[in-house]
Amino acid sequence: MTVRIVVIGAGICGVSTAIWLQRSGHEVILLDKGDPGMGASVQEWMGFRPTPPDNTPLIGQIGTSGIYTGFGHQHIGLSTGPKTGRLIAQLIDGETPNIDMMPYSPERFV
Ligand SMILES: Cc1cc2nc3c(=O)[nH]c(=O)nc-3n(C[C@H](O)[C@H](O)[C@H](O)COP(=O)(O)OP(=O)(O)OC[C@H]3O[C@@H](n4cnc5c(N)ncnc54)[C@H](O)[C@@H]3O)c2cc1C
């Protein structure tokens, strides 16, 4: 089923998520407050590397809200962001990812 999905943030994670969702046949709108990828994904030297207390990104749905998160990739988001995009697309499509998603639950700090 084709779903209209809004992805907020056009960094490596957002762009990767949008690509995977589009490949699945969904209608995707990619929003950014500035030019695409002008956050951590294009910093040349200084810059934020958002890191949760347990160094593990928050990937998954918040409850049954229909809102999915994919952030907190700290120093390795350029390497791991594309996989996050695929995982989010799989979750939205109701597929079972090939890794245990529990450690990444966005609800673990609630
Ligand atoms: C100097 C530096 C070097 C790095 N080197 C490496 C490396 O060698 N290897 C590696 O794997 N990783 C590296 N990283 C880490 C990697 O860059 C980040 O983990 C990754 O880019 C994070 O991607 P992201 O998509 O989550 O966030 P971002 O790239 O920051 O994208 C978030 C996007 O969301 C947008 N946004 C924010 N708020 C809003 C809003 N309210 N509304 C709409 N849009 C919004 C921003 O404009 C931005 O475009 C480095 C980071 C830095 C800073």
What does this structure look like?
This protein is of the alpha+beta class. The chain has a domain at 4-48 and 74-101. It is built from 2 helices and 4 strands, in the order βαβββα. It has helices at 12-23, 77-92; strands spanning 4-8, 27-31, 58-61, 68-71. A hairpin with a 6-residue loop joins strand 3 and strand 4 (68-71). Helix 1 (12-23) packs parallel to helix 2 (77-92). The longest helix has 16 residues, at 77-92. The protein starts with a strand and ends in an 18-residue tail after the last helix. Flavin-adenine dinucleotide binds next to helix 1 and helix 2.
Main pleated-sheet profile: 2 strands, parallel
Helical content class: 25-40%
Radius of gyration, Cα only, in angstroms?
Answer: 14 Å
What is the helix tally?
2
Instruction: List low-confidence stretches.
Output: none
Structural class: alpha+beta
Small molecules held by this entry: flavin-adenine dinucleotide
Shape call: globular
